[in-house]
Amino acid sequence: MAYELPVMLNCEGRLCLIIGGGKVAERKASALREAGARLCVISPLLKSARLAGWADDGSIEWKARAYREGDLNGAFLVHAATDAPDVNAKIAADADRLGILVNVASKGSSGSFTNPAVLRRGRLTVAIATSGAGPMASVTIKEQLEHQFGEEYEAYLDFLYRMRTAIKDEVELPEQRRRLLHKLYRLDILEEIRRGDNANAPWDPDKIKQWIEQNREE
After folding, report:
1. Contacts of residue 17, Cβ cutoff 8 Å, sequence gap at least 6
2. Are 80 and 86 in contact (CB under 8 A)?
3. Domain boundaries, the chain
């Protein structure tokens, strides 16, 4: 069995296409908007009210027609999300020929990528894929992980980001950086955040600098 390769794609400012105007297209568009993509939807009709609203306010570009050859030129990735399997297959073939990433809603295995279930907690992203065991399996696992990774992880990852940035800015020697980062990840800040101990979590800039100076040489 060949496993799919998990990756994180930077779609910000990149042209991403969605062919289709229904609920599936809406879900794909919602995720791409959150990723900052430059989004174009191609469909004779927009059956989704949210898609129509985004088209009206200029959040997405809408081409009110059917897919035709040449539409994929310049695209970073494409979602084939029409209700016609033959059209989706044509889109997938065109994308493959052009070397463009393509997801096929009606038959995921015929595309070059699939969309996992996603759990987000600020900077934390957990993607769940089950390699064909079914979307409900992914949803069930996601619900279980939501209890394990609560809202406190958003503050925790923000704290780690600020600390790591400060260490990189304040400390030049690589060995000192590594030592400080090892100490950072052993701190019990997550538990302090869960307890609501605002005296320690998150730290203010002065406390961060003080911690770096105290632990730099140890």
Report:
1. 40, 41, 42, 71, 72, 75, 77, 78, 79
2. no
3. 15-115, 116-148, 152-215
Spatial contact of 40 and 15, defined as CB atoms under 8 Å apart: yes
pLDDT in tens, 131-140: 888 889 999 9
Domain spanning 15-115: CATH 3.50.40.10 = no
Tell me if residue 202 falls in helix, strand or coil.
coil
State the pLDDT at residue 216: 85
pLDDT digits (tens, 9 = 90+) for 145-171: 999 999 999 999 999 999 999 999 999
Alpha carbon distance 98, 48 (integer Å): 29
Mean pLDDT of 43-71: 97
| One-letter identity of residue 87 | V
The answer, yes or no, to whether the previous bond of 85 is cis (omega within 30 of 0) is no
- 74-112 tens-digit pLDDT: 999 999 999 999 999 999 999 999 999 999 998 766 899
